[in-house]
Amino acid sequence: MRVVRSGECVGVDAFGPVPSSYNHLMLYHFAVRENWQADPDRPYAPPSLAKDGTVHCSPTEAAVLKAIARFHQDTDGLVLVIDETMVDVPVDWVAPPAYSPMAHQPGFRMAQLRGPLNRDAVVQLMDVVRAEDGQDWRLVARDGSTTR
Fold first, then answer.
1. Which of 85, 79, 82 has the alpha carbon at shortest distance from 36?
2. Chain segment 68-79, per-residue pLDDT in tens
3. Class of CATH domain 19-141
4. Burial zone of 69 (CB within 10 Å; 0-12 exposed, 13-18 middle, 19+ buried)
5. pLDDT digits (tens, 9 = 90+) for 47-64
6. Which of 58, 80, 87, 90 could link 63 by a cystine bridge, Cβ 3.0 to 4.6 Å?
């Protein structure tokens, strides 16, 4: 379901209000490194775009880290930080599928881009680093800074 937006004001979708804690301007997408590096002069089109017509994005760093831990533990990739206001395609906010690690979080919504991602909307690249304990993950910006 599409969330109705007016400037920076987020409305209500069919599932209820979207939590105000979301940063509605930044989205986080895990990209397989070779997919991101392919065709750098063209919009980014991950396999999910061909499969279901969308580019899946998380509204928080914590959510993208849970998705990485669940689906991409052994995948060489990075996180794209996307400025939603710069995306050239429609963005839908939907409830996650039942198999998602965020499926049972009340009110959680994930973003889906309904088309390829224009690369100029990517404002930061972050490396995914597994903590020394081998369990936890964190994001490290290309400038060396870490996230919360």
1. 79
2. 888 887 778 899
3. alpha beta
4. middle
5. 999 999 999 999 999 899
6. 58
Residue written as token pair 């999910």: 48
Q: Which residues contact 13 (CB under 8 A, 6 or more apart)?
A: 1, 2, 3, 4, 93, 94, 109
Both tokens assigned to 56 = 């899946």
- What DSSP character marks residue 44? B
Structure-token pair, residue 95: 């409830």
Question: pTM here?
Answer: 0.78
Domain extents in the chain: 19-141
Q: Which three-class secondary structure state does DSSP give residue 51?
A: helix
The beta strand positions in 95-136, using DSSP E, are: 110-113, 122-130
